[in-house]
Amino acid sequence: MTTNDQNDRAAWLHGPPANCSVPPEGDQPRWRLVLLGAPGVGKGTQADLLHRRLGACHLSTGDVFRAAARNGLCEPTPAMTSALEYMRRGELVPDATVWEMVRERAGCLRCGGGFLLDGFPRTLAQAEALNRAMQSDKITLDAVVNYELPLTDIIARLSGRRVCEKCKAVTHVSLQRAGDDGRYHHCGGHLMQREDDRPEAIAVRMDAYDRSTAPLINFYKGLGLLVPVAATGSPESICGRTVSALAERTTRSGR
Ligand code: AP5
């Protein structure tokens, strides 16, 4: 396992013409993982920590859509503009739009540094499309980590989440100190609430998760890839639990 704090994700966030400024080292062990779990369970937080532990790149489909919304990072195609409307309401973006966006970035899936897919796949159709693409590239997933947390904790994480307007860091109101005055203590940027973290959008997202994404748990269990991990406790303890579960799986499978 390796450490690499640099994770500019340029090729993923900006699209096909972009190059990462810090390409992964060629001889590091690569991990190809999917992070599953309900909205707000902490997938993005874990992806950041796992990137530092495992070196694999954090690839979030939600981040690509948010980058497009900020203008300039992605071409605002009509499909992307409509995707942002779905996202604001808390609904899933149609499979065809999501797959087109991922397919354009397939180089990131083939990258020697491996990947941590966060927020994709989210439907059976997306999971099957990913399987077909990986098979044709002769690459395989190492595991699918499923983060589990009671609904009340999930709602508390989502409704208290804040994003720094300046550095884009994700934090939580419970981590703010007295006197921070709505600013992120690391850089002083204003803390904003994501539009889809409003209560009405959270309800729509949880419903979409139950109907479309939860069935992926059985899909990946059937493929022998599922690694369940309790998402309780501190982010660092969850990350440690994840790395241990992956190591145990590796030992068992002789990877
Ligand atoms: P996306 O960005 O993927 O959102 P999500 O899956 O709903 O997940 P979140 O980003 O809300 O939560 P998270 O699990 O990453 O939690 P986080 O680490 O931030 O997708 C957004 C939208 O884009 C979708 O609704 C859809 O419209 C569209 N979309 C994206 N991909 C799509 C696809 N493939 N198909 C169709 N549509 C797609 O943590 C949450 C909060 O908890 C934070 O405040 C954090 O600080 C805090 N926290 C984290 N860990 C802990 C801990 N251990 N203890 C206490 N607090 C914690």
List the helices and strands and how they pair.
Blueprint lengths: L9 H5 L16 E6 L6 H12 L2 E4 H9 L8 H12 L5 H10 L1 H5 L3 E5 L5 H13 L6 E6 L2 H10 E4 L5 E3 L18 E2 L6 H15 L1 H8 L3 E5 L4 H19 L2
Parallel strand pairs: 1-3, 1-4, 2-3, 4-8
Antiparallel strand pairs: 5-6, 5-7
Helix pairs in contact: 2-11, 3-4, 5-7
The chain binds BIS(adenosine)-5'-pentaphosphate (AP5).
How far apart lie the N and C ends?
Answer: 14 Å
How many individual β-strands? Answer: 8
Cα shape: globular
Structural class: alpha/beta
Averaged pLDDT, please?
Answer: 91
Bound molecules: BIS(adenosine)-5'-pentaphosphate
* Helical run tally: 11
Radius of gyration: 18 Å
Largest sheet: 5 strands, parallel
Low-confidence stretches: none
Kindly state the percentage of residues in helix. 40-55%
- For the largest beta sheet, what order do the strands appear in spatially? 2-3-1-4-8
Give the percentage of residues in beta strands. Answer: 5-15%
Helix-strand pattern, N to C? HEHEHHHHEHEHEEEHHEH
Tell me what the structure shows:
The protein is α/β, with parallel strands linked by helices. Helix content is 46%, strand content 14%. The strands form 2 sheets. Strands 2-3-1-4-8 form a 5-stranded parallel beta sheet, sandwiched between helices. Helix 2 crosses helix 11, helix 3 packs across helix 4 and helix 5 runs parallel beside helix 7. The longest helix is centred in the last third of the chain and has 19 residues. The protein binds BIS(adenosine)-5'-pentaphosphate.
